[in-house]
Amino acid sequence: MRSVMLLLLGAHLAYAGTHSLRYFYTAVSGDIDFPEFTVVGLVDEGQFMYFDSNTKEAVPKTEWMKQNEGAGYWDRQTQGLIGTHQNFKNNIQVAKERFNQSTGVHTFQQMYGCEWDDQTGATNGLRQFGYDGEDFLSLDLKELRYISPVQQGFPTVQKWNNNRGLLEDNKNYYRTVCIEWLKKYLQYGKSSLEKTVSPQVSLLQRSSSSPVTCHATGFYPSGVTITWMRNGQEHHEDVEVGELLPNEDGTFQKTSTIRVTPDEWKNNKFSCVVEHQGKTKTANEIITNPDTVPMGIIVAAVVAAVLLVVIGVAGFMVYKKKNGFKPLSGSDDGSNSSAIAIPQA
């Protein structure tokens, strides 16, 4: 079975600087006990809306959305996404036929949105489709055309690139509509999105022969850098950086693991330096527990496992590490929605 992992997609954003609005759509076919279709909306990596094909209802996930958008907004979102669900069911069937597949579990995904730098005014739009965790189709907004890295995507590329109305709608959405909605959402959630919470940093090791893990948790926003130091110099050998993961309280956690022998650790001065929002925290004393894995990492692993079963609930997407299915953007079905209409493949 193909090895997959879960990755929270999105730039590492602070409130001042670059902001993002992103949507993640996932359709699944096969014998699976979770929704066929899920949608998550994120502003600056924080989830603000959710929809799935079981509940058939778009709902707010933040207080600032509940307070600023009424029933009409959520009704429009719901009706649009019910239609998109059917479209995605068709598209996943098209993809299965093109890849000559009739059985098994398969996913068809879209990631789209926009970015805005509140200091320079620069904007960017992103849109990408994936099938079974692999790149399938993406929009080159600069050239205003779709491209595909696989032969199975070529018929869709030809079809969509010949639809000038679709391309112009995409351009208008990414360069104008999406940015307007992003700014509106940022204003709605300004007090929440401005918050800064510093990380807690620990060095963890299961036994003296195990790798040492630097665990940074409880921080917001998500932008963080973890660096290993050896005798005062940056050290990059035998270091593996973990993925950014969400905590239940809306903060984030991340790990970096180094493999060193007990003698190396004893005879050298190793430390972990975590940078967040211009501040640094350093840890050099190991917490060792030979019997259990630290609770914070257990929680992160459980979250990741649950998200594999309920794809999209926290903005996670199935991702094949080798190629990296990265975030892109979408287009709009009207001025009353920040989401995008999806054409058939």
UniProtKB/TrEMBL annotation:
Residues 1-16 form the signal peptide. PROSITE patterns: IG_LIKE (PS50835). GO terms for biological process: immune response. Residues 199-288 form the Ig-like domain. Keywords: Glycoprotein, Membrane, Signal, Transmembrane, Transmembrane helix. CDD domains: IgC1_MHC_I_alpha3. This is Ig-like domain-containing protein. The keyword Acyltransferase does not apply. SUPFAM superfamilies: Immunoglobulin, MHC antigen-recognition domain. It comes from Cirrhinus molitorella (mud carp). Belongs to the MHC class I family. The lineage of its organism: Eukaryota, Metazoa, Chordata, Craniata, Vertebrata. InterPro entries: Ig-like_dom (IPR007110), Ig-like_dom_sf (IPR036179), Ig-like_fold (IPR013783), Ig_C1-set (IPR003597), MHC_class-I_related (IPR050208), MHC_I-like_Ag-recog (IPR011161), MHC_I-like_Ag-recog_sf (IPR037055), MHC_I/II-like_Ag-recog (IPR011162). The chain crosses the membrane at residues 295-319. One of its GO terms (cellular component) is external side of plasma membrane.
